[in-house]
Amino acid sequence: MPSRGPARGPSLDREILALAVPALGALVAEPLFVLVDSAVVGRLGTAQLAGLALASNLLLTVVGLCVFLAYATTAVVSRLVGAGRERDALQAGIDGMWLAVVVGVALGVAAWLGAPAAVGALGGTGDVATHAVTYLRASAAGLPGMLLVLAATGVLRGLKDTRTPLAVASAGAVVNAVVNIALVYGAGLGIAGSGLGTALTQLGMGATLTVVVVRGARRRGASLRPAAGGIWASVTAGVPLLVRTASLRIAILLTVAVATRLGDVTLAAHQVVNSIWGLAAFALDALAIAAQALVGHGLGARDLGHVRAVLGRCLRWGVLAGTAIGVLVAATGWWIAPLFNPDDGVRAAVAAGLAVCGLLMPMAGWVFVLDGVLIGAGDGRYLAVVGMVTLAAYASAALAVGVWAPDGAVGLAWLWAAFAGVFMLARALTTGLRARGTRWMVPGA
């Protein structure tokens, strides 16, 4: 296929934003599930809310590690569509969704059987542990739906459709709130009703997105039957991204462990700073999702000029967005803190931590976009290797902070300088050097 030449700035900017804005909405809608569960369960009592905290963290970790189902599928589908092979793209997407169902069922069974041991490993005891196990088991049935949502969303992103996942995620957030209230209070199921309500909503979302993908597959003549070769291809593409995601999750857990070691003030303030960092990450992740789809399409079409143009424009948007968000975060830290905790020590620590985050946010924008570009190019093996390298670099810095930094504002500032500075710098260097070369730009399907 002949090259169509690099896309021009304004039109490419519109294409990036047309993908990124709906993707951001879908990303923000998902955390509303946790917020709704917290609000509903919190009225049942402190022990129930504490149990929800343990169980939801376990579920989020499991689902977070399985995000490769979306990333790998987006990369494969977008590349095949770019090559003009829409039937094969939908077939690959269907295989990825079958893999999601198989993995989801296995994890659901494991969650049911292993709930007591998993809750105990996190330190849950007494009534808190009982409620955590109850919620985890009630929500375990929803794991196939949760993973199916990831895979189907990956297919639609590969087709450059981010609006449908937004609509489904938004509707799901509303339905989840209504169903949870009905089951917890109307049916008197307590915390089990919250877990069951979330499971039913996720299964419904998975079914809805499946219908959308299946209709597209039928229109293009793709088979709905699972193909062993296609499922294995999804596995081989997903494993490196699983390793890459695991390195990020370990880094986050290490940060929490160091904050815990430094003291109660640092840990309390870290929770606030980490929550705000997470919200900022959603905005930057939306640009990464746009980069994944556009890079995959460009490589599939063998239009390397377009790929380079996407890289440059997405990086510009990432740095600009990171700068704007960083200024907002750094400037409002002192006033945001009292909304979470009235203690002056916590307030000072939150302000210090957010000032560091704000200063380094432009680099995070750069990193997130480069991550999305390389994922869209199917460069998962490289990301897996450097993920472990950057984790090792960060671990040294984080452990050093844990040894000598004091509790409070100074300690939290150093901890976030290690995470948002050392860790992000290591990721910026490794992904930036890769992007400067051409080994990741493998054209064709």
UniProtKB/TrEMBL annotation:
Cite a single GO MF annotation: antiporter activity
NCBIfam families per the UniProt record, alphabetical = matE
Give the family from UniProt. Belongs to the multi antimicrobial extrusion (MATE) (TC 2.A.66.1) family.
Q: Where are the transmembrane segments?
A: 16-36, 56-77, 97-115, 135-159, 166-187, 199-217, 229-256, 276-296, 317-337, 349-370, 382-405, 411-429
Q: What is the lineage of its organism?
A: Bacteria, Bacillati, Actinomycetota, Actinomycetes, Micrococcales
Which is an annotated Pfam family here? Answer: MatE
This protein's membrane topology, according to the annotation, is: Multi-pass membrane protein
Protein's recorded name: MATE family efflux transporter
Highest taxon of the lineage: Bacteria
Q: What keywords are assigned to this protein?
A: Cell membrane, Membrane, Transmembrane, Transmembrane helix, Transport
Please give the organism: Xylanimonas allomyrinae
Coarsely, its chief localization is membrane
Q: Per the record, GO CC terms?
A: plasma membrane
